[in-house]
Design brief:
By secondary structure, this protein is an alpha/beta fold. It contains 16 helices and 15 strands. It has a 5-stranded mixed beta barrel. Strands 1, 2, 3 and 4 form a 4-stranded mixed β-sheet that branches. A 3-stranded mixed β-sheet has the order 10-11-12, sandwiched between helices. A hairpin with a 6-residue loop joins β1 and β2. The longest helix has 29 residues.
């Protein structure tokens, strides 16, 4: 049995990339858990596997008594004096209780428990292997697509990309090479340990760090990213060297750098804008390619009233209000657009937001607070809500998307 056990230990060590020490420890725990009652029902039991020989021994901690033992936690002093000459009544000693056929019994009893122990050991190895790569891009091969999730082989571990972490309309097949951002290591669930994403804004950040040497070297800094995965991303950059144009560095010669990133993202549009400490200048840049006339700042409501020419209004809003919505996320303020011809008669930003929220609440029959959240995130009309995808709506905290979709369907 010892030789057979050593063979199993070597096989597992080589084929599962688990250390011999971890496997032996897992075996000891498995045998202890599975065979404790059948070996010796003592309260303290220890299993020891000798690494060189594979010999399995069971040891129980027992109380020394001078009478017939009353339970399995006791042993009479006459039995132990030869091995422990100085023992006294009341002492607790470790005594071998290994049955003669223990190796085979233990192996059979521990089989299922060992599988669990080894799985745990594998996951702990994954935790150690990938801990310093959390938040970084890792590379793997698609194994299969199951229930919408993509299962990925990362060589030393298996990962999963849930549907919510995928770029919409992006398709994968077994054997495809895939790059993804490692967002979580889960060693407690029974499924794959690595959770990855291609829809997270940080994925775009890491792609720029990989492609743009000035970012990697710290000369150019990414100040903010706002993203609607698969459709459009806005990224703000700044340079610590006045001789280095941060936008130009990210775009690359003839657009080669940004093209490699958009190719990776399935032609997702990327707007690279210069960051500015001045809020008015920053939001002006964030709304590019629209041309802004002026910006009024409402500190109390953390809102911006942006004036544009009438012919720039459509550009500023963008398709399905995406441009203004992403600009708001990028600067971290609520943006209200107003064209030049209507700025004189326009109510205050706060009043406009309240009016828009009131209309949404009434039309959808939803709570006023939820309507206000939608407006604050750039969803000011029924049409805009209908056109928005789930990823955009999920960015609004505290909104029940299913209930919102149902309300939109009810109004036709």
């Amino acid at each position: 049995m010892s030789n057979e056990l050593l063979t199993v230990i070597e096989y597992l060590s080589q084929n599962r990339s688990i250390s011999r020490e971890s496997i032996i420890k897992a075996l000891e725990n498995a045998i202890l858990s599975a065979s404790k009652k059948s070996i010796h029902p003592a309260s303290e039991l220890r299993i020891k596997i000798d690494p060189p020989t594979g010999k399995i021994q069971a040891w129980a901690t027992l109380e020394v008594v001078d009478h017939v033992p009353m339970n399995n936690d006791q042993i009479v002093i006459g039995r132990v004096q030869e091995l422990y000459p100085d023992v006294k009544v009341g002492d607790r000693i470790e005594w071998e209780v290994t049955p003669s056929n223990f190796g085979r019994i233990a192996a059979q009893a521990a089989r299922q428990n060992l599988t669990q122990q080894l799985r745990r050991a594998e996951k702990e190895n994954v935790q150690e292997e990938f801990a310093d790569r959390l938040g970084q891009i890792i590379y793997g091969t698609v194994k299969k697509v199951e229930a919408g999730s993509v299962l990925i082989d990362f060589q030393k571990a298996e990962g999963i990309m849930p549907l919510r972490e995928q770029i919409r309309d992006e398709k994968f097949a077994p054997g495809d090479r895939i790059n993804a951002l490692l967002i979580k290591i889960d060693i407690n669930s029974s499924g794959p340990s690595l959770i990855v994403s291609r829809s997270a804004p940080e994925f775009v950040t890491r792609l720029f760090e990989r492609e743009v040497s000035e970012i990697h070297d710290g000369v150019v800094t990414i100040k903010g990213v706002a993203r609607e995965a698969g459709k459009r991303t806005k990224i703000a950059v700044a340079s610590s060297d006045p001789k280095v144009d941060p936008v130009g560095a990210c775009v690359g010669v003839r657009g080669t750098r940004v093209k490699r990133i958009t190719d990776e993202l399935g032609s997702e549009r990327i707007d690279i804008v210069p960051y500015d400490e001045d809020l008015a200048a920053y939001v002006t840049n964030a709304l590019l390619p629209a041309q802004v006339q002026s910006v009024k700042i409402d500190e109390a409501n953390h809102a911006l009233l942006v004036i544009v020419n009438e012919d720039q209004s459509k550009v500023a809003f963008g398709r399905k209000a995406q441009n203004v919505r992403l600009a708001g996320k990028l600067v971290g303020w609520t943006i209200k657009l107003c064209d030049e011809t209507s700025k004189e008669r326009a109510p205050s930003i706060e009043e406009q937001m309240k009016i828009a929220a009131g209309k949404l609440a009434e039309a959808l029959n939803i709570d006023a607070a939820d309507a206000a959240k939608l407006v604050a995130n750039g969803f000011v009309t029924i049409e805009g809500l209908k056109a928005a995808d789930d990823a955009a709506l999920e960015s609004v905290e505290g909104i029940d998307i299913d209930a919102l979709r149902a309300a939109l369907e009810n109004i036709g």
